[in-house]
Specification:
about 180 residues; mainly alpha; globular; about 0% strand; about 75% helix
Length: about 180
């Protein structure tokens, strides 16, 4: 989701659209590698080390190590991006992703929450805040994200991976945590 968010920022029709291509490419690579590629590449290691029993990470306990590593990678992405001379909004967005990952980690000590829905909720929260803060019409993204969120939530329920409360709370916490960080920072 952070990668999609960066792409939305770069195509929002705001001043962020006019960043030099080299900056966009570098930011995109940092976010993609640290929030998607590296976490996925570590899954076989987790399986081999018996940290997780399946790629589905069915119990909340199995999610703790992967979420801890993901949180650290998100913060590393934030650290790398914060070293660049780029608009503060991009840095805040990546920090918001790290905060959401940390919240998912904390919740996983006690309860299983839909991390998929947290990601989509966070993306939705980011688009809402960016839209209102930069006074740009991003309704197309709003509608697209809501449709994808509905389909994702339905899939999580249909696969019996989560109950409705885990799906709704995941979306809500993602939305509130990301939007909150963007509004504060």
């Amino acid at each position: 989701m952070p990668t999609y968010g960066v792409l939305i920022l770069f195509n929002s029709g705001t001043f962020l659209t006019y960043l030099p291509f080299e900056y966009k490419r570098l930011i995109f690579i940092i976010v993609l590698v640290n929030t998607a590629i590296l976490p996925m590449c570590l899954v076989p290691l987790y399986l081999y080390q018996k940290i997780i029993s399946t790629i589905h990470m069915s119990s909340n306990r199995e999610r703790i190590i992967p979420l801890l590593v993901s949180t650290l990678l998100f913060y590393f992405a934030y650290y790398l991006v914060s070293q660049l001379n780029i608009p503060h909004l991009i840095k805040s967005y990546i920090l918001a992703g790290a905060v959401a990952a940390f919240i998912a980690l904390l919740i996983s000590f006690k309860w299983k929450i839909s991390v998929h829905m947290m990601g989509i909720g966070g993306l939705f929260g980011a688009v809402i805040v960016i839209s209102s803060r930069l006074m740009v019409d991003l309704k197309f993204y709003w509608v697209t994200i809501i449709i994808i969120a509905g389909l994702t939530g339905f899939a999580r329920l249909r696969l019996d991976s989560h109950n409705p409360l885990q799906v709704y709370v995941g979306f809500g916490i993602g939305l509130i945590s990301v939007a909150g960080v963007l509004l504060i920072k």
